[in-house]
Amino acid sequence: MTCKWVSSIDDNVACNRCADESGYCIFHKENKNIEESEIFINEIKNQKISDFRGFIFNEKFVTKDVIDYKYKRLSFTEAQFIKEAIFNDYEFKYDTDFNYTLFEEKVSFKRVTFYRNCSFKETKFVKENIGKKIFEKVKFKGQNLVVNNVENLPRMDGIVFRNYSKFILTNIHYEKEDYLYGKINFKIARIQAQKIGDHDRIGYYYYNERNYGSKIMKITDYPNKREYLSAKFYDSLSRYAIGYGEKPWNILIITILIISIFALLYMLTGLMTSSGDYIGINLSNISKYSISEIINIYVNLWYFSMITFATVGYGDMIVINTMGKILVCIEVFFGVTLAATWASVIIKRMIR
């Protein structure tokens, strides 16, 4: 009887080993007893297996005690480590992947060296591992370390990268109590991206680093409450207005909103054209205006709001009361500030 294990991510991948009465081979069988677990490890050694796709490790697994033979690639794709997985002091000399791997207990990569590429895609760690330094004194000398959509990704500040190594960190999310580790990991990714000149990803890493950092700001980190509130205000302004400098289109959207809102306000205060015509709406007698008249008035006032925001001021329209002058001053201030911000963000991205 052939083992009935089939890959959950690729239906074309299945096991063709002989199965026992459970319907699975020794490698894919769940709930192995002690004797079966010993046979499981011995078979790995004897067959010098390097593809552990879908293997179920029921007992503690220590890599250096098992994989002491040559291989061309190590794949732990879809493997399940029911108990501890210890990779300490091991040298991964060729490409290694932990894609769709499940670590149900403690896992440790202390003093590990990666000489080639390594990937963690759709990998799942238990939540207890997030704050632990499972990557301690790790040396990564390969070309690419890819971490994508990993659940409960532990802190990675124990990894030392070579100057040419690329660290790709995408689709990683943390819950409120783990925001600190999100900040740490995206900071590491940003620094490494800056080292190798990976400009396409620097902005993404920087935004997420700042975003997680803003969520863990505490009043105890500042000399006084005033300093904290000031930092919190500017951080929120930076995040929503320009996406920490990585979302310049936010400025364009805000600009259109400001111009449109002030155009509505000018409808209430009214304007006078250079020819002496009044443009505005009398709310006490609004029923006399048709829809087309209101639209035409709004378009004219939107034009005025636009040139005011841009601080051009052609002089073909002027405000006629104190409230109108106050609105103009406020809008000019917004215009000057956002124009400078837009310029700095665009120049920053162009230089990068």
From TrEMBL:
The keyword Mitochondrion does not apply. The chain crosses the membrane at residues 249-273, 294-314, 326-347. SUPFAM superfamilies: Voltage-gated potassium channels. InterPro entries: K_chnl_dom. Pfam families: Ion_trans_2 (PF07885). Keywords: Membrane, Transmembrane, Transmembrane helix. Residues 297-350 form the Potassium channel domain. It comes from the Bacteria. This is Transporter.
